[in-house]
Amino acid sequence: MLLKILIAVVFAAMLASLAAGAGFLLKDDSQSRRLLTSLKIRVSLAALMLILLGYGFLSGHLGG
User: Fold this and answer.
1) Is there a domain that residue 21 lies in?
2) pLDDT tens-digit profile of 6-63?
3) Is residue 49 assigned to a domain?
4) Cα separation of 63 and 9, whole Å?
5) Residue 19's CB: how many other CB atoms inside 10 A?
6) Residues spanned by the domain of 18
7) CA 23, 25, 27 angle in degrees (round to 5)?
């Protein structure tokens, strides 16, 4: 159960990073690095999500 909650939290953080990146894209000037930082965070969270999902399926905590 803890794994499912952790996956949901990581997914919510990815959505928050996506929304922040969209806001930075619309409002910041071309010299701002906040959009790049948001992308780095989102990619890291996606990698963490893949690791968690892989662990969940291989250990039998997720799936049928």
Assistant:
1) yes
2) 999 999 999 999 999 999 999 988 888 999 999 999 999 999 999 999 999 999 999 8
3) yes
4) 19
5) 11
6) 1-59
7) 65
Q: How many residues does the chain have?
A: 64
If one counts the domains in the chain, the total is 1
DSSP labels, 9-50: HHHHHHHHHHHHHHHHHHHS-TT--HHHHHHHHHHHHHHHHH
- Within-domain flag for 64: no
Instruction: Give CA separation, 20 vs 15, 29, 40, 54, 60, in Å.
Output: 9, 15, 12, 27, 34
User: Residue for token digits 């992308």?
Assistant: 39
Dihedral (C-alpha) 54, 20, 22, 7: value to the nearest 10 degrees? 20
Q: Give the chain's end-to-end CA distance (angstroms, integer).
A: 15
